[in-house]
Amino acid sequence: MKKTSLCIIPARGGSKGIPNKNIVDVLGKPLISYSIVSAIESNLFDRVIVTTDSEDIANISLFYGAEVPFIRPEELSTDASLVQDAIVHCLKYVEEEYGKYEYVCLRQATSPLISKEDIIESSTLLIDKKADIIVSVTETPYNINWTGKIGEDLSMKNFMSFCGTRRQDFSTTYVVNGGIYFGKWDIFYDKKNYYEQDVYAYKISYEKSIDIDSELDLDLVKYFIGKAII
């Protein structure tokens, strides 16, 4: 892919589960640095921009080579704010200052195990499939056919309609892991439903797709980085 691509890494300052989650220490480096470095080292992007409301995140992002051309407005940085709105705000700024790009890659700061190779391979898939967008997915640890709803009285009547079916006879199921969204500019700008477009899946292993949302996730990521799986 030619360098007609923009990478955006959203990183809000507020975090309830893990204080300052996006810059928490992960084996001597701030969490967000892993996403920034993998994006830069993929050598795919004209710009790697972090959109944040935090001066601390901004300074750290600049240190690791990202651009932080603005501080995100407060109204786009609350617990109720949608990341799509922050992305559109960033794209409007970029269009005004630098013009439009052909492709946009949205990277999640809390998925540090996704590597530059994953970014490159997802971009290759985007071109090969002539897709509108590529979304990273992970195989579900439990097949959705074994899941169901339980009533307030804990009743499991009609919980599952596949009793007697062998596990190996079920189709493999996947979950969106949020690590990579790589697609055409207008898909993000117009806030289109990704799954109503010409969308294809980029498969990532469970280990590499961990999204840090708890102390346990953080411990797992530190373990896998220590095992050098990236």
Strand order of the largest sheet: 4-1-5-7-6-8
CATH class: Alpha Beta
Q: Unreliable segments (pLDDT under 50, ≥5 consecutive)?
A: none
Silhouette: globular
CATH topology: Spore Coat Polysaccharide Biosynthesis Protein SpsA, Chain A
The averaged pLDDT comes out at: 90
H/E topology pattern: EEEHEHHEHEEHEH
Q: What name goes with the CATH superfamily?
A: Spore Coat Polysaccharide Biosynthesis Protein SpsA, Chain A
How many domains, as an integer? 1
Number of strands: 8
CATH-derived architecture: Alpha-Beta Complex
Global Rg: 19 Å
Largest sheet: 6 strands, mixed
Strand content: 15-25%
Question: Based on helices, strands and strand pairing, what is the structural class?
Answer: alpha/beta
Describe this structure as you would to a colleague.
The chain is α/β, with parallel strands linked by helices and 230 residues long. It has a single domain (5-225), classed as Spore Coat Polysaccharide Biosynthesis Protein SpsA, Chain A, CATH 3.90.550.10. The chain is 29% helix and 20% strand. The protein contains six helices and eight strands; from the N terminus they run E-E-E-H-E-H-H-E-H-E-E-H-E-H. The strands form two sheets. A six-stranded mixed sheet has the order 4-1-5-7-6-8, with helices on both faces. The chain has a two-stranded antiparallel sheet with strand order 2-3. A hairpin with a 2-residue loop joins strand 2 and strand 3. The longest helix has 16 residues, at 83-98. The radius of gyration is 19 Å and the shape is globular.
